[in-house]
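Subject: sequence -> structure tokens, single chain

Hey, anyone have a minute? Need the predicted structure for the following. Not urgent.
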Amino acid sequence: MKLEIWNRETQTIEGEKVYGEKSLNFLYKSWLGLPFRHLATRYPFVSAFYGWWMSRSFTRQLIAPFIQKFGLDPAIFRLPVSDFASFNAFFTRELKPEARPIASTAAVMPADGRYWFYPSMGQAEGFVVKRERFDLPSLLQDEALAARYADGTMIMARLCPTDYHRFHFPIDCVPGPTCLINGYLYSVNPIAIQQDLSIFTQNKRTLCSLQSETFGEVLFLEIGATNVGSIHQTYTPNRKHLKGEEKGYFSFGASALILLFRKGVLTLAPDLTPRPIETLCLMGQSLSN
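Reply:
Had a minute. Here:
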């Protein structure tokens, strides 16, 4: 499967190099991979062990080849490559502030990632896989809460293992505590999603309410995936945070974010029209107009 994305910065369509593509195809496209997928996604100790392994010092040798293969720019890392004690330390790296300037718009991108934009959940044509529609009540585990966002705007971001894996507040807000909704750890790569859209509502995820003077209540969800056993929060609940301030980070693996705005409160930036392919955006770029 060849993945293509729209690069917002360069305004071009690009092919995506998929980390672990052969393994993903085996796990999600072959019946032989079914028992291994079951083991890897439904038993947290597998991801926990992999995370522990990638935190060992000997994994430092993987960093340079990874940077070269996926074309990363070490010049924007806050620390020099030689300072990373393990591959996971590199994976959770911080960037220099100037590498991700924060746009002046009221809402900005919360993370580097490949985005889908749905101005209205009720009109999310195309967000259907094998006739299976996105199940908001299952995602939030709250029927009443889901009803308040049923016709709202949804922004979804997929973070690849090659991405900067810290996530940030998209708006000026007072965030509440982050609540855990336990679940599995399926991959969120399109190779997996095209087989089963309900992955988002089955995976381990966290939910946080952001209170904003401009947008009212906004929901922020972090979704774990294969080999992501840990979602770390670094913010202080019930204290005002500005857009672009760090909220937390993911440990090694792929992962996803979802933002939910109520109906009519968010007007997306003009170039963020729904597309048939994902849009590559960077943290701090404009989200609203």
